[in-house]
Automatic annotation (TrEMBL):
It comes from the Bacteria. Pfam families: SnoaL_3 (PF13474). InterPro entries: NTF2-like_dom_sf, SnoaL-like. Keywords: Signal. This is Nuclear transport factor 2 family protein.
Length: 159
């Protein structure tokens, strides 16, 4: 499969932040912090656009110099992502269902991090899908609002 949708967890450097700087962990049932809500809305909008097959909406949420890391490879611009994995990512998203199981998000100035863990299920290319996913998105805020500058996806089969 070209894409094991939704998944990240960039090797977040294991240097613990002071407790007051740590992101709040959010679950589906918890409310979203006012500072992180706009960035989380962009991440959720990105996934909704993938699922609906709206390539223009997906691309509008990415910076021109976005870096997308998945399946051991890298796409180093919005144009490169559009010409390579985007079509497969939209097809995969339309064929599967995603559940967010855990999310952490925080904002520092004009940079936001949204870390999402989840599960993706369904059928893709006539094969069952049941994977645990991890995703890191780093966003940058400009005069145009929040845009995704970096995505890292990873996934694995549940134990």
């Amino acid at each position: 499969m070209t894409r094991l949708f939704l998944a990240a967890l960039i090797g977040l450097v294991a240097v613990p932040a002071p407790a007051h700087d740590r992101p709040a962990v959010l679950t589906v049932a918890q409310s979203v912090d006012a500072a992180t809500a706009p960035a989380i809305a962009v991440v959720d909008g990105f996934h909704a656009a993938l699922k609906s097959g709206d390539a223009d909406a997906v691309l509008a949420l990415l910076t021109e110099d976005v870096v997308v890391l998945e399946t051991g490879g890298a796409e180093r611009s919005r144009e490169e992502y559009a010409g390579h994995h985007l079509p497969a990512d939209m097809t995969f998203a339309a064929a599967t269902t995603d559940e967010v199981t855990r999310r952490a998000a925080w904002v520092e100035g004009d940079i936001a991090w949204v870390l999402t863990e989840g599960r993706t299920t369904g059928t893709f290319n006539d094969r069952p899908v049941n994977i645990l996913t991890a995703e890191t998105m780093i966003l940058h805020r400009s005069a145009d609002g929040w845009r995704i500058r970096h995505i890292h996806w990873s996934s694995r089969t549940p134990r």
